[in-house]
Predict the 3D structure of the following.
Amino acid sequence: MATDLGELLVPYMPTIRVPRTGDRVFKSECAFSYDSPESEGGLYVCMNTFLGFGREHVERHYHKTGQSVYMHLKRHVKEVRRVTRLFSNLELNRDFNGVDYEYEDEAKLVIFPDHFEIPLPNIEELPALVSEIVTIACDAVLNASSPYKKQEADTWEEEIQVSKHARSLRQQENGVRIPPSGWKCAKCEMRENLWLNLTDGSVLCGKWFFDGSGGNGHALEHYKETNFPLAVKLDTITPDGADIYSFDEEEAVLDPHISEHLLHFGIDMLQMQRVYNDVQPCVSDWEVIQESSLKLKPVYGSGYTGIKNLANSCYLSTTMQVLFSIPEFQRAYVGNLQRIFDYSPLDPTQDFSTQMWVFLSWNVIIMLNLSCFFILYNCNQQRGISPKMFKALVSKGHPEFSSDRQQDAHEFFLHLINLVERNSSGSENPGDVFRFLVEERVQCCQTQKVRYTQRVDYLMQLPVPLEAASNREELIAYESKRKEAEENMRPPPEPVRARIPFTACLQAFTEPENVPDFWSSALQAKSAGVKTSRFASFPEYMVMQIKKFTFGVDWVPKKLDVSVDVPDFLDLNRLRATGLQTGEAELPDLTPPIVIPEDTRAPEIDESSVMQLAEMGFPLEACRKAVYYTGNMGAEMAFNWIINNNLERALDWIFTHPDCEDESEAMSDTADTEPNNNSFSNANAHSDSSLSPDQDLSSPRVRDGPGRYELFAFISHMGSSTMSGHYVCHIKKEGRWLIYNDHKVCLSERPPKDLGYMYFYRRLSSC
């Protein structure tokens, strides 16, 4: 019999591989579902690709690839004190009815398509040559570490070392003091991904990220010009440290003297620590938002799947729960299983659309199966799914989301929408339901002339005007008592939460704002300018963020403790853009001269080279920039400059905009004459978001309609900072509110709508 089995294996021996360094072995979950060795059908690991498949999917993989040999892993759960074996597809423990359980693992090789089985203990009986090779391969698979270990080792916490420049860093006595907010790159209009050079205090933008966010690389350019080696990311500074990068060592580093180096520029980390220690935790927030004082009823079934928390991953879970409750996302990713399987790449773990499908569709299917278990056996435990594969993919290459630190749900939402768009070429883009146009009206205060422009956005940000609090007297009294208690070293009084009318937030959103460094094309010089923003279109789904997070004057990141009476029904029609009005004179359509700090003269630019590049499909201003920075050395040199600065982004722009010409200023950091409006998300500050005022709004990418909405979900944050705390979400389904708190899903008794952070509205069908 052993000889016969050996003969069966011989034709497939060339396909049996031993995992090498760098190979990822998926022996704990299916690439197309959340099946595992504990599932009823177990898990099949391909002995060539090391991908895992549930019983339903292994046949498809065999027919698609021709790979025939799989290791079948099955974990049985056995009851210790009773004869009956219970529920082999679930991990049970002694807390369930007071019964103890133990695991029994089983492994065997299976040869498709005839399902010949070879238990691993029997491999030694095979012919020597076959036995030796197969045993080595099987042992390597069984002993392989988690496929996510490598990514975990790539996080800064694991590899970070003290910089060789930390002790000897010399800082310039130039009087630079960094404010706690209002930062902008010294060489462009970037207001995110900003880095503070620890030698001279320059604030400059970082590099592009793979997802299209990031900056224009001016921090690196500054290092090449000055050799000033260390920089700190501005929005990461906390009492515990900050993200520091060494341009010379080309890696993230530690700086044991970071508090001294930051204090040189007016950032007092020790003061931040004292303030953090004095902050009273608002316990009521945790209780009210999680409804922990109420006995909530768990729910099970389709659409009610919980998601396990993978080390501060609640920002991801809550965002995905809301997105997957939207029909457009369901249609885009739950479609035909066979089509998803047929068109997925050889490694589906690295395919965004496949993993979105897995996350959305299989959590529903698994929960349907588990619901039968809960009903039949009256088990009050909720397990949820564990989306390790999905998190590893969507966070790949991102310095924040790839870490185990808590993150901002608002930033992750924009990051995911970016990924959805990048992976929707040639198919429906469900992210378009959030897409809308913003009309920006800028007026030169001296000439009164105006300019109207439009850009794409996905999220509306509402400021919080604390001065409009309806309980101002109560707040003043509390502050007086707090100071008195502090002076007399007594316990502080019970905190008082500011109650802000939603109408006040909306009014603050519509107020004109000053435009710093405004360049007036009418005067051809800098002048005072004001800007107002309105909706040129309204999306199917309006996402609204309450801007609760800010920095104090002492550089302490803080969260505004406010209650906002957010309405169930929202009418934004009065904020509809009107375009150029009768009697208004337009600013001339001129571009400000490109200059460098040391030279105020307008540069000479070879326009013929610019046009050659523009004909290739690159944005006009990006072409001008490339020609300028290559010293008018010709179109070829300028082309290489664009490619070398960001190959992926350049190619991505060309392939996703084959018919567009000069509509984007995505790669230019010199053409913007005014900064982005803080009242919107700026999700497309570096994408093809600039549109002419007369552009056709009937494009399928813009689903314009009435601006009346109904609230259907909101995400809430508990804690003092986006870098800590916890997120939950509430979603309204079938006329009832539910709370999604990691793996637990329950009916909500008192949805805390006034304490939310992000709100999701859907357009009313009849207006």
Remarks:
- The mean pLDDT is 79.
- The first helix runs from residue 2 to 9.
- Residues 536 and 577 are 5 Å apart (CA to CA).
